[in-house]
Design goal:
331 residues; alpha/beta; Rossmann fold; Dihydrodipicolinate Reductase, domain 2; 2 domains; seven-stranded mixed β-sheet; six-stranded parallel β-sheet; 15 strands; globular; binds NADP nicotinamide-adenine-dinucleotide phosphate
Protein backbone atom coordinates (compact mmCIF):
# COMPACT_ATOMS: atom_id res chain seq x y z
CA UNK A 1 0.00 0.00 0.00
CA UNK A 2 1.30 3.44 -0.87
CA UNK A 3 2.02 5.72 2.09
CA UNK A 4 2.98 9.31 2.74
CA UNK A 5 6.26 9.04 4.61
CA UNK A 6 8.31 11.44 6.73
CA UNK A 7 11.88 10.73 7.80
CA UNK A 8 13.14 11.85 11.20
CA UNK A 9 16.92 12.09 11.57
CA UNK A 10 19.08 13.20 8.68
CA UNK A 11 22.04 10.84 9.11
CA UNK A 12 23.36 7.80 7.27
CA UNK A 13 20.19 5.67 7.43
CA UNK A 14 17.86 8.46 6.27
CA UNK A 15 20.19 9.22 3.34
CA UNK A 16 19.81 5.60 2.22
CA UNK A 17 16.05 5.46 2.84
CA UNK A 18 15.11 8.67 1.01
CA UNK A 19 16.08 7.61 -2.55
CA UNK A 20 14.51 4.14 -2.14
CA UNK A 21 10.99 5.01 -0.98
CA UNK A 22 9.64 5.60 -4.49
CA UNK A 23 10.81 2.10 -5.54
CA UNK A 24 8.08 0.72 -3.27
CA UNK A 25 5.46 3.28 -4.32
CA UNK A 26 5.72 5.55 -1.26
CA UNK A 27 5.78 9.34 -1.26
CA UNK A 28 8.40 11.25 0.73
CA UNK A 29 6.66 14.27 2.25
CA UNK A 30 9.16 15.61 4.80
CA UNK A 31 12.59 15.11 6.32
CA UNK A 32 13.30 16.42 9.80
CA UNK A 33 16.82 16.70 11.20
CA UNK A 34 18.98 19.01 13.20
CA UNK A 35 22.26 20.85 13.01
CA UNK A 36 24.06 21.38 9.72
CA UNK A 37 21.63 19.16 7.78
CA UNK A 38 18.74 21.62 8.27
CA UNK A 39 17.98 23.52 5.08
CA UNK A 40 19.84 21.10 2.80
CA UNK A 41 18.01 19.18 0.07
CA UNK A 42 17.74 15.51 1.10
CA UNK A 43 18.66 14.33 -2.42
CA UNK A 44 21.90 16.30 -2.23
CA UNK A 45 22.56 15.01 1.29
CA UNK A 46 22.28 11.50 -0.17
CA UNK A 47 24.83 12.43 -2.84
CA UNK A 48 22.18 12.49 -5.58
CA UNK A 49 20.22 15.11 -7.51
CA UNK A 50 18.04 17.52 -5.51
CA UNK A 51 14.48 16.25 -4.93
CA UNK A 52 12.95 19.53 -3.74
CA UNK A 53 12.60 18.50 -0.10
CA UNK A 54 14.76 20.46 2.31
CA UNK A 55 15.53 19.07 5.78
CA UNK A 56 13.45 20.89 8.38
CA UNK A 57 14.29 21.43 12.03
CA UNK A 58 10.72 21.79 13.35
CA UNK A 59 9.32 18.30 13.93
CA UNK A 60 5.85 19.29 15.19
CA UNK A 61 5.39 21.90 12.44
CA UNK A 62 6.53 19.55 9.70
CA UNK A 63 4.18 16.78 10.90
CA UNK A 64 1.19 19.15 11.17
CA UNK A 65 1.82 20.55 7.70
CA UNK A 66 2.61 17.36 5.79
CA UNK A 67 0.47 14.81 7.73
CA UNK A 68 2.50 11.66 7.00
CA UNK A 69 0.91 8.22 7.40
CA UNK A 70 4.21 6.76 8.59
CA UNK A 71 7.41 8.16 10.09
CA UNK A 72 10.70 6.29 9.65
CA UNK A 73 12.89 7.43 12.55
CA UNK A 74 16.65 6.95 12.56
CA UNK A 75 18.03 9.22 15.24
CA UNK A 76 19.08 7.28 18.32
CA UNK A 77 19.00 3.81 19.84
CA UNK A 78 16.97 4.05 23.04
CA UNK A 79 13.41 4.81 24.05
CA UNK A 80 14.67 7.55 26.36
CA UNK A 81 16.56 9.32 23.57
CA UNK A 82 13.70 9.04 21.08
CA UNK A 83 10.75 9.51 23.46
CA UNK A 84 9.95 13.14 22.69
CA UNK A 85 10.09 12.57 18.91
CA UNK A 86 7.97 9.41 19.29
CA UNK A 87 5.37 11.34 21.27
CA UNK A 88 5.28 14.08 18.62
CA UNK A 89 4.79 11.55 15.81
CA UNK A 90 2.17 9.50 17.66
CA UNK A 91 0.11 12.53 18.68
CA UNK A 92 0.29 13.73 15.06
CA UNK A 93 -1.39 10.42 14.09
CA UNK A 94 1.59 8.82 12.33
CA UNK A 95 2.67 5.20 12.62
CA UNK A 96 6.37 4.98 13.55
CA UNK A 97 9.09 2.59 12.40
CA UNK A 98 12.24 3.23 14.41
CA UNK A 99 15.80 2.09 13.76
CA UNK A 100 16.35 2.39 17.52
CA UNK A 101 17.57 -1.02 18.64
CA UNK A 102 15.95 -0.80 22.08
CA UNK A 103 12.53 -0.71 20.39
CA UNK A 104 13.08 -4.27 19.09
CA UNK A 105 12.09 -5.48 22.58
CA UNK A 106 11.21 -2.28 24.44
CA UNK A 107 9.68 -3.87 27.57
CA UNK A 108 12.93 -5.74 28.21
CA UNK A 109 14.92 -2.50 28.53
CA UNK A 110 12.61 0.27 29.61
CA UNK A 111 9.23 -1.08 30.75
CA UNK A 112 7.90 2.20 32.16
CA UNK A 113 8.53 4.14 28.93
CA UNK A 114 7.31 1.18 26.88
CA UNK A 115 4.01 1.20 28.81
CA UNK A 116 3.53 4.91 28.30
CA UNK A 117 4.40 4.86 24.57
CA UNK A 118 2.17 1.81 24.10
CA UNK A 119 -0.78 3.54 25.82
CA UNK A 120 -0.28 6.73 23.78
CA UNK A 121 -0.05 4.79 20.51
CA UNK A 122 -3.25 2.85 21.33
CA UNK A 123 -5.04 6.08 22.20
CA UNK A 124 -4.08 7.59 18.85
CA UNK A 125 -4.71 4.41 16.83
CA UNK A 126 -1.15 4.08 15.49
CA UNK A 127 1.49 1.36 15.61
CA UNK A 128 5.09 1.80 16.77
CA UNK A 129 7.73 -0.78 15.91
CA UNK A 130 11.43 -1.20 15.17
CA UNK A 131 13.18 -2.56 12.13
CA UNK A 132 16.53 -2.31 10.37
CA UNK A 133 19.31 -4.71 9.47
CA UNK A 134 18.65 -6.74 12.60
CA UNK A 135 14.99 -7.37 11.74
CA UNK A 136 15.35 -10.35 9.40
CA UNK A 137 19.00 -11.13 10.08
CA UNK A 138 19.23 -11.02 13.89
CA UNK A 139 15.65 -11.87 14.93
CA UNK A 140 13.36 -13.50 12.39
CA UNK A 141 16.00 -15.60 10.63
CA UNK A 142 17.35 -17.24 13.84
CA UNK A 143 13.77 -17.72 15.04
CA UNK A 144 12.99 -19.57 11.81
CA UNK A 145 16.02 -21.83 12.34
CA UNK A 146 14.70 -22.96 15.71
CA UNK A 147 11.59 -24.24 13.98
CA UNK A 148 13.74 -27.03 12.51
CA UNK A 149 14.65 -28.70 15.81
CA UNK A 150 12.73 -30.83 18.28
CA UNK A 151 15.21 -30.05 21.08
CA UNK A 152 16.93 -26.69 21.54
CA UNK A 153 19.94 -26.27 23.86
CA UNK A 154 21.64 -23.16 22.51
CA UNK A 155 21.17 -20.52 19.83
CA UNK A 156 24.37 -18.59 19.09
CA UNK A 157 25.09 -15.93 16.49
CA UNK A 158 28.29 -14.25 15.36
CA UNK A 159 27.37 -11.13 13.45
CA UNK A 160 29.87 -8.78 11.86
CA UNK A 161 29.24 -5.39 10.36
CA UNK A 162 31.34 -2.48 9.20
CA UNK A 163 32.22 -0.10 12.01
CA UNK A 164 30.18 3.07 11.30
CA UNK A 165 32.86 5.65 12.08
CA UNK A 166 30.65 8.50 10.85
CA UNK A 167 27.81 7.73 13.30
CA UNK A 168 27.84 10.34 16.02
CA UNK A 169 27.17 7.75 18.75
CA UNK A 170 30.37 5.91 17.71
CA UNK A 171 32.62 8.93 18.18
CA UNK A 172 34.25 7.52 21.35
CA UNK A 173 35.42 4.28 19.67
CA UNK A 174 36.26 6.13 16.42
CA UNK A 175 38.79 8.18 18.39
CA UNK A 176 40.55 4.94 19.46
CA UNK A 177 40.87 3.40 15.97
CA UNK A 178 44.46 2.31 15.22
CA UNK A 179 45.52 2.54 18.90
CA UNK A 180 46.82 -0.45 20.88
CA UNK A 181 44.05 -2.87 21.97
CA UNK A 182 45.02 -2.24 25.63
CA UNK A 183 43.69 1.33 25.26
CA UNK A 184 40.17 -0.16 25.10
CA UNK A 185 39.89 -2.28 28.26
CA UNK A 186 37.33 -5.09 28.21
CA UNK A 187 34.26 -4.30 30.33
CA UNK A 188 32.07 -6.96 31.95
CA UNK A 189 28.44 -6.18 32.63
CA UNK A 190 26.27 -8.50 34.74
CA UNK A 191 23.10 -6.53 34.03
CA UNK A 192 23.11 -5.34 30.40
CA UNK A 193 19.91 -3.53 29.56
CA UNK A 194 20.15 -2.33 25.98
CA UNK A 195 22.03 -2.48 22.69
CA UNK A 196 21.39 -4.28 19.42
CA UNK A 197 22.54 -7.71 20.64
CA UNK A 198 20.67 -7.52 23.96
CA UNK A 199 17.41 -6.35 22.39
CA UNK A 200 17.60 -8.84 19.50
CA UNK A 201 18.11 -11.74 21.95
CA UNK A 202 15.25 -10.46 24.11
CA UNK A 203 13.01 -10.37 21.04
CA UNK A 204 14.10 -13.91 20.18
CA UNK A 205 13.40 -15.07 23.75
CA UNK A 206 9.92 -13.60 23.58
CA UNK A 207 9.36 -15.13 20.15
CA UNK A 208 10.27 -18.54 21.61
CA UNK A 209 8.15 -18.04 24.73
CA UNK A 210 11.22 -18.31 26.98
CA UNK A 211 11.57 -16.70 30.42
CA UNK A 212 14.83 -14.76 30.69
CA UNK A 213 16.41 -15.27 34.12
CA UNK A 214 19.78 -13.59 33.64
CA UNK A 215 21.97 -11.65 31.23
CA UNK A 216 25.71 -11.04 30.88
CA UNK A 217 27.71 -8.94 28.46
CA UNK A 218 31.31 -8.12 27.64
CA UNK A 219 32.47 -5.18 25.56
CA UNK A 220 35.97 -4.68 24.23
CA UNK A 221 38.06 -3.97 21.18
CA UNK A 222 37.66 -5.72 17.83
CA UNK A 223 41.03 -6.19 16.10
CA UNK A 224 41.94 -7.30 12.58
CA UNK A 225 44.53 -9.90 11.57
CA UNK A 226 45.68 -7.74 8.65
CA UNK A 227 46.25 -4.02 8.14
CA UNK A 228 43.31 -1.81 7.11
CA UNK A 229 42.55 1.85 6.45
CA UNK A 230 39.60 3.68 8.01
CA UNK A 231 37.90 6.49 6.10
CA UNK A 232 37.04 9.00 8.80
CA UNK A 233 35.24 12.33 8.42
CA UNK A 234 38.62 14.09 8.78
CA UNK A 235 40.62 11.80 6.47
CA UNK A 236 42.15 8.34 6.36
CA UNK A 237 43.61 6.54 9.35
CA UNK A 238 45.86 3.48 9.17
CA UNK A 239 44.65 0.55 11.29
CA UNK A 240 47.69 -1.74 11.73
CA UNK A 241 46.99 -5.45 12.39
CA UNK A 242 46.18 -6.12 16.04
CA UNK A 243 45.17 -2.54 16.88
CA UNK A 244 41.67 -1.27 17.64
CA UNK A 245 39.51 -1.64 14.52
CA UNK A 246 36.11 -1.34 16.18
CA UNK A 247 34.24 -2.93 19.05
CA UNK A 248 33.16 -6.46 20.00
CA UNK A 249 30.21 -7.09 22.28
CA UNK A 250 28.98 -10.48 23.44
CA UNK A 251 25.63 -10.84 25.17
CA UNK A 252 24.34 -14.05 26.71
CA UNK A 253 20.84 -14.60 28.06
CA UNK A 254 20.01 -17.42 30.47
CA UNK A 255 16.48 -18.74 30.49
CA UNK A 256 14.34 -20.69 32.93
CA UNK A 257 13.99 -23.37 30.24
CA UNK A 258 17.80 -23.90 30.23
CA UNK A 259 18.20 -22.65 26.65
CA UNK A 260 21.17 -20.29 26.17
CA UNK A 261 20.87 -17.38 23.72
CA UNK A 262 24.20 -15.82 22.73
CA UNK A 263 25.14 -13.10 20.25
CA UNK A 264 28.64 -11.88 19.38
CA UNK A 265 28.28 -8.45 17.75
CA UNK A 266 31.44 -7.32 15.95
CA UNK A 267 31.54 -3.86 14.41
CA UNK A 268 34.91 -3.61 12.64
CA UNK A 269 36.52 -1.40 10.01
CA UNK A 270 36.78 -3.31 6.73
CA UNK A 271 34.13 -5.94 7.55
CA UNK A 272 31.01 -6.71 5.56
CA UNK A 273 27.74 -7.53 7.27
CA UNK A 274 27.70 -11.26 7.85
CA UNK A 275 25.55 -13.43 10.09
CA UNK A 276 26.49 -16.91 11.28
CA UNK A 277 23.81 -18.58 13.38
CA UNK A 278 24.26 -21.94 15.08
CA UNK A 279 21.50 -23.94 16.70
CA UNK A 280 22.63 -26.67 19.08
CA UNK A 281 19.87 -29.21 19.48
CA UNK A 282 18.23 -32.03 17.59
CA UNK A 283 19.46 -31.72 14.94
CA UNK A 284 22.25 -29.10 14.98
CA UNK A 285 21.58 -26.41 12.39
CA UNK A 286 23.91 -23.76 10.99
CA UNK A 287 23.29 -20.91 8.61
CA UNK A 288 25.46 -18.14 7.16
CA UNK A 289 23.95 -15.05 5.62
CA UNK A 290 25.41 -11.89 4.19
CA UNK A 291 23.79 -8.61 3.23
CA UNK A 292 27.03 -6.98 2.12
CA UNK A 293 25.89 -3.47 2.95
CA UNK A 294 24.32 -3.56 6.40
CA UNK A 295 23.18 0.04 6.33
CA UNK A 296 21.42 -0.47 3.00
CA UNK A 297 19.58 -3.45 4.42
CA UNK A 298 18.56 -1.25 7.37
CA UNK A 299 17.01 1.21 4.92
CA UNK A 300 15.32 -1.45 2.80
CA UNK A 301 13.89 -3.36 5.77
CA UNK A 302 12.53 -0.16 7.33
CA UNK A 303 10.80 0.57 4.02
CA UNK A 304 9.51 -3.00 3.78
CA UNK A 305 8.01 -2.62 7.27
CA UNK A 306 5.74 0.24 6.14
CA UNK A 307 3.10 -2.30 5.13
CA UNK A 308 3.47 -3.99 8.55
CA UNK A 309 3.02 -0.67 10.35
CA UNK A 310 -0.12 0.13 8.35
CA UNK A 311 -1.63 -3.31 9.07
CA UNK A 312 -0.53 -3.78 12.71
CA UNK A 313 -2.84 -3.23 15.66
CA UNK A 314 -2.36 0.11 17.45
CA UNK A 315 0.33 0.12 20.14
CA UNK A 316 4.03 -0.53 20.66
CA UNK A 317 5.21 -3.89 19.32
CA UNK A 318 8.06 -6.28 20.08
CA UNK A 319 9.55 -7.23 16.71
CA UNK A 320 9.09 -10.97 17.18
CA UNK A 321 5.32 -10.43 17.64
CA UNK A 322 5.18 -9.16 14.05
CA UNK A 323 5.27 -11.38 10.96
CA UNK A 324 8.63 -12.01 9.25
CA UNK A 325 9.34 -9.78 6.27
CA UNK A 326 8.55 -11.10 2.81
CA UNK A 327 9.26 -9.52 -0.55
CA UNK A 328 6.10 -8.44 -2.28
CA UNK A 329 6.11 -7.91 -6.05
CA UNK A 330 3.28 -5.37 -5.66
CA UNK A 331 4.08 -1.83 -4.60
N1 LIG B 1 17.94 -1.42 13.80
C1 LIG B 1 19.02 -1.57 13.04
O1 LIG B 1 19.25 -2.64 12.43
C2 LIG B 1 19.95 -0.41 12.89
C3 LIG B 1 20.87 -0.38 11.84
C4 LIG B 1 21.64 0.77 11.67
C5 LIG B 1 21.52 1.83 12.57
N2 LIG B 1 20.66 1.72 13.60
C6 LIG B 1 20.48 2.83 14.56
O2 LIG B 1 19.83 3.89 13.87
C7 LIG B 1 20.23 5.14 14.44
C8 LIG B 1 20.67 6.07 13.32
O3 LIG B 1 21.79 5.51 12.65
P1 LIG B 1 22.61 6.38 11.60
O4 LIG B 1 23.71 5.52 11.08
O5 LIG B 1 21.69 7.02 10.64
O6 LIG B 1 23.23 7.48 12.60
P2 LIG B 1 23.77 8.94 12.25
O7 LIG B 1 24.40 8.95 10.91
O8 LIG B 1 24.54 9.41 13.44
O9 LIG B 1 22.42 9.79 12.11
C9 LIG B 1 21.57 10.06 13.18
C10 LIG B 1 21.05 11.44 12.94
O10 LIG B 1 20.02 11.71 13.86
C11 LIG B 1 20.32 12.95 14.51
N3 LIG B 1 19.76 12.91 15.85
C12 LIG B 1 20.19 12.22 16.92
N4 LIG B 1 19.39 12.44 17.97
C13 LIG B 1 18.43 13.28 17.52
C14 LIG B 1 17.31 13.89 18.11
N5 LIG B 1 17.00 13.66 19.41
N6 LIG B 1 16.53 14.69 17.34
C15 LIG B 1 16.84 14.94 16.03
N7 LIG B 1 17.89 14.38 15.42
C16 LIG B 1 18.66 13.58 16.16
C17 LIG B 1 21.82 13.04 14.51
O11 LIG B 1 22.22 14.38 14.65
P3 LIG B 1 23.68 14.71 15.29
O12 LIG B 1 24.68 14.30 14.25
O13 LIG B 1 23.58 16.18 15.53
O14 LIG B 1 23.81 13.92 16.56
C18 LIG B 1 22.13 12.50 13.14
O15 LIG B 1 21.96 13.49 12.14
C19 LIG B 1 21.33 4.81 15.45
O16 LIG B 1 20.77 4.80 16.75
C20 LIG B 1 21.78 3.42 15.06
O17 LIG B 1 22.30 2.70 16.16
C21 LIG B 1 19.87 0.64 13.78
Amino acid sequence: MSARVALVGAGQVTRLVAPRLRDRGHELVAVIGRGAAVGRDVGELAGLNPVGIAVRGDLAGALAETRPDVVLMSTASTLAATESALVACITAGAHVISAGEELLAPWASDPARAESIDALARAHGVSVLASGHVDALWVHLPLALTGIVTRLDRLEGTCTRPFAAARSSNAGVAALLGRPAADYPVEHDDAPGSGAAFSSLQAIARGLGLTVTGARATLGPAVREGDAVALLPHGERAIPAGTIAGSARTVELETAEGIALVLHDLARIGDHSTEHWRVTGTPDVELRASATQGLVSTATQMIARIDTALAASPGLHTLSDLPPLRFSPAG
